[in-house]
């Protein structure tokens, strides 16, 4: 004989079962409100890319915007994300993330400057702090809806009233839906405020907003097919065409509207676009964008990068030398030559071009780190002291370079300084966002270091570190 368990209360009361399911579903909707903003953990997992030339251009683009916005130039870091879609966002008041796709798609400096001006508008508007409050309010609104709806569902289920259960279910879902729409409406309002702030910044710096309009026009064209089926009130940003129309009136009033970017700035923009495309795209894509008939400096730059990635060292170095002959004071050509030599297994030969690049831009931290890398990789013990010194100097300026820390750890290790090597490894892991690994190495370093010394305090800070949970903002 097979034993069959007694029926549960849920089985004997299907309305109660449905009520529980509705309550769980609506509660999940409240939790989903937090998903409208990427958390800090997601930001740490972004595929970031470092390039001294591109970062210098972005800083020069942003500098006048920051000045008129009342932001210290050193306050905000512009961080490159290795994604080719057109997107940018602020994570807090100190960081603007910008996809390389923004630069690749932008034919003129103004298209990128408009994006940076918009993100600066979010910073000056204190939108991150306000968004956290709006999110809390939206969650409270949804929670109240759930409480009221749950009460109606429970009462209806107990009374055996299907209409009451359905009415309560409507209150459950309506509460979460209303909260989400309220939050999205708030975000749309913020985007519009940031747009207007960007126009103001461009006007005050004597720059045209035409590039910014071109960017939004691109969004509008991409949205034409789907706009008919899109609910404008379920979007976190204003509808592209609506956004464009609102900005056009403001932008065209400016006396700077038809003012082109300076020739030198456009040339730098073209060089950076060529470089990024060559480093991130298939050689065939680069060949189509820059055919052999194109003898511009940007085209030669792109072909030299592709050669470095795909051909022999001798061929790529020859092409880079041709670039240097055309612009002998361009530090980024020497950086590229050093990189080609280093990555092809000839670090000793890479030292000289890295030194030259650094002599042309003495405060460029990435050049310091490249030079330190080459000195360490040369396997010459006599160069380890210089390598340690130059790497530390670079990391003081740019404390977020995992490669710099890894090379510093090697330099310390080869000199028998195991505690310092562990600390450098820990700091490199922190820069990568691997907090667990960083704490492990820092704990090991702390045991060997003299208590109270600067190195011991750095290790102790890492061991005690708790990563913040801050929302991002696009």
From TrEMBL:
Q: Which cofactor does it need?
A: Zn(2+)
Question: Positions of the TPR repeats?
Answer: 331-364
Annotated ranges, domain Peptidase M48: 62-250
Per UniProt, the keywords (alphabetical) are:
Hydrolase, Metal-binding, Metalloprotease, Protease, TPR repeat, Zinc
A biological process (GO) annotation for this entry?
proteolysis involved in protein catabolic process
Task: Give the range the annotation lists for the signal sequence.
Answer: none
Q: State the InterPro entries in the record.
A: Mito/Outer_Membr_Metalloprot, Peptidase_M48, TPR-like_helical_dom_sf, TPR_rpt
Which GO MF terms are attached to this record? metal ion binding; metalloendopeptidase activity
Can you cite an annotated GO cellular component? membrane
Matching entries from Pfam families are given as: Peptidase_M48, TPR_16
Q: Matching CDD domains, A to Z?
A: M48C_Oma1-like
Please indicate if the UniProt record lists Iron-sulfur as a keyword. no
Protein name in UniProt? M48 family metallopeptidase
Q: Which organism is it from?
A: Stappia taiwanensis
Lineage of source species = Bacteria, Pseudomonadati, Pseudomonadota, Alphaproteobacteria, Hyphomicrobiales
């Amino acid at each position: 004989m097979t034993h069959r368990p007694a029926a549960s209360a849920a089985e004997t009361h299907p309305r109660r079962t449905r009520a529980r399911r509705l309550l769980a579903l609506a509660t999940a909707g409240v939790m989903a409100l937090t998903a409208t903003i990427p958390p800090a953990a997601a930001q740490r997992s972004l595929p970031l890319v470092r390039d001294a030339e591109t970062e210098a251009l972005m800083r020069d683009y942003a500098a006048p915007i920051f000045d008129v916005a009342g932001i210290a130039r050193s306050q905000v870091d512009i961080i490159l994300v290795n994604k080719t879609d057109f997107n940018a966002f602020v994570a807090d008041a100190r960081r603007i993330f910008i996809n390389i796709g923004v630069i690749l798609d932008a034919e003129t400096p103004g298209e990128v400057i408009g994006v940076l001006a918009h993100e600066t508008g979010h910073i000056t508007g204190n939108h991150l702090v306000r968004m956290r409050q709006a999110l809390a309010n939206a969650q409270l609104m949804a929670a109240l809806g759930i409480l009221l709806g749950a009460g109606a569902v429970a009462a209806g289920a107990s009374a055996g009233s299907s209409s009451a259960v359905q009415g309560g279910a409507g209150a459950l879902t309506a509460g979460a839906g209303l909260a989400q729409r309220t939050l999205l409406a708030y975000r749309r309002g913020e985007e519009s405020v940031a747009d207007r702030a960007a126009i103001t910044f461009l006007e005050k710096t004597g720059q045209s907003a035409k590039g910014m309009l071109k960017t939004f026009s691109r969004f509008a064209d991409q949205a034409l097919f789907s706009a008919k089926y899109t609910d404008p009130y379920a979007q976190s940003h204003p509808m592209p065409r609506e956004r464009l129309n609102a900005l056009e009136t403001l932008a065209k009033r400016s006396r700077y509207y038809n003012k082109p970017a300076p020739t030198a700035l456009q040339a730098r923009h073209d060089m950076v676009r060529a470089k990024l495309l060559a480093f991130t795209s298939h050689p065939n894509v680069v060949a189509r964008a820059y055919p052999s008939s194109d003898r511009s400096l940007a085209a030669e730059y792109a072909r030299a990068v592709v050669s470095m990635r795909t051909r022999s060292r001798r061929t790529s170095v020859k092409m880079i030398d041709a670039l240097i002959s055309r612009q002998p004071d361009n530090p980024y050509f020497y950086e590229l030559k050093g990189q080609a030599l280093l990555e092809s297994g000839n670090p000793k030969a890479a030292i000289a071009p890295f030194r030259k690049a650094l002599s042309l831009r003495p405060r460029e931290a990435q050049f310091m780190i490249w030079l330190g890398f080459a000195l360490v990789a040369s396997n010459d013990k006599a160069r380890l002291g210089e390598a340690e010194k130059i790497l530390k100097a670079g990391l003081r300026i740019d404390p977020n370079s995992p490669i710099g820390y890894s090379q510093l750890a090697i330099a310390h290790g080869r000199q028998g300084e195991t505690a310092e090597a562990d600390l450098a490894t820990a700091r490199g892991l922190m820069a990568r966002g691997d907090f667990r690994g960083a704490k492990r190495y820092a704990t090991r370093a702390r045991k060997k270091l003299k208590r109270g010394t600067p190195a011991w305090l750095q290790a102790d800070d890492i061991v005690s570190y708790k990563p913040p949970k801050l929302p991002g903002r696009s």
